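Is this the right way to post structure tokens for a design question? Let me know if I should format differently. Anyway, here goes:
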């Protein structure tokens, strides 16, 4: 019997190979299998709600709505907001990654202020930007795809070369400054840690077995926690790598409940005031919150509050609750520039 049409098929019939033949006693068992799969899917959806609070049919509220509040949306002049950094005066530095030609009205690096529902551009530069970080002295450090980090000194708009240079003349693609002032730089399958004065502290490239630590194309996003752990996100490597003092300690590859929608696509990470790590998952429109040891705490589906394709994160403590900024890719056919979101995030 054919499992699809339940008609007898002669072995010489042309489409015989396109059909699955089963014993007549097994008819009905197939339906039971389908029912079991349906029940498993429902159970997965229920688990999705109970763990992360994602909104599904029959759920009137979710922790996403409860934990991410006072959401404000801003339209920028940039195509994509790939990079975000908070400045000491409350303004933001945003970058879209590529140098733009004269036919565009925007530039690849902007210092902006959010005024009510408007974005005011304070200053701008037409240059390649691959990463932005702010030092304890309020200098802006920028990764531009060269062996040296560029900088904008506090109180100046002039771009100059910094003291932070990769000694093997390999290009820097990402930068992060830790709370204690360490400058952490990443490139093609390597990470370098320097002190405030530009002296080398640690280099991560091969593990204790002399195998490559990083498997992706290049290091894209870096953050760190107060216990000294460093969190790395690479292009084309769907995981978050946690580095200890000398080696890889842990790797987070997403949660199967969320990955069944689409594979895990981490793209940006930032450390929260409570020393947790917030990871933006661009493919699933979610935020994963990890503790300082790379263990999953919860996941928020930000698509439930109208935010899609997050690509950059920044956070600052502004009592009583932290303020989270999310920069996004263009994902709507009628939108020509990236959106920026500002909100309060609870218990993070």
């Amino acid at each position: 019997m054919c499992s699809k049409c339940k008609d007898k098929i002669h072995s010489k019939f042309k489409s015989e190979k396109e059909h699955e033949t089963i014993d007549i006693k097994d008819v009905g068992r197939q339906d039971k299998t389908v029912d079991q799969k349906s029940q498993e899917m429902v159970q997965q959806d229920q688990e999705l709600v109970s763990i992360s609070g994602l909104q599904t049919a029959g759920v009137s509220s979710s922790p996403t709505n409860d934990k991410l509040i006072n959401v404000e949306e801003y339209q920028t002049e940039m195509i994509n907001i790939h990079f975000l950094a908070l400045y000491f005066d409350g303004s933001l530095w945003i970058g879209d990654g590529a140098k733009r030609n004269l036919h565009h009205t925007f530039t690849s690096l902007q210092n902006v202020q959010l005024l009510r529902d408007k974005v005011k551009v304070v200053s701008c530069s037409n240059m390649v930007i691959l990463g932005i970080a702010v030092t304890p002295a309020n200098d802006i450090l920028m990764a531009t795809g060269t062996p040296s980090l560029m900088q904008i000194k506090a109180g100046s708009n002039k771009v100059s070369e910094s003291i932070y240079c990769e000694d093997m003349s390999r290009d820097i693609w990402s930068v992060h400054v830790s709370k204690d002032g360490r400058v952490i730089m990443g490139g093609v399958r390597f990470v370098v840690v320097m002190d405030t004065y530009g002296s080398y502290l640690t280099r991560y490239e091969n593990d204790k077995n002399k195998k490559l630590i990083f498997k992706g194309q290049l290091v894209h996003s870096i953050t760190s926690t107060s216990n000294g752990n460093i969190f790395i996100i690479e292009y084309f490597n769907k995981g978050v790598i946690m580095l200890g003092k000398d080696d890889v300690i842990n790797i987070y590859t997403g949660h199967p409940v969320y990955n069944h929608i689409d594979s895990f696509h981490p793209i940006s990470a930032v450390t929260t005031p409570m020393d947790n790590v917030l990871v933006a998952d661009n493919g699933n429109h979610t935020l994963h919150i990890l503790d300082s040891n790379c263990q999953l705490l919860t996941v928020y589906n930000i698509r439930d509050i109208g935010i899609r394709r997050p690509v950059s994160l920044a956070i600052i403590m502004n009592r009583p609750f932290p303020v989270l900024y999310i920069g996004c890719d263009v994902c709507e056919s009628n939108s020509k520039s990236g959106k920026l979101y500002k909100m309060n995030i609870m218990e993070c």
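Format looks fine. Someone answered above. Worth noting: The helical segments are 29-52, 63-67, 256-259. The CA atoms of residues 55 and 62 lie 6 Å apart.
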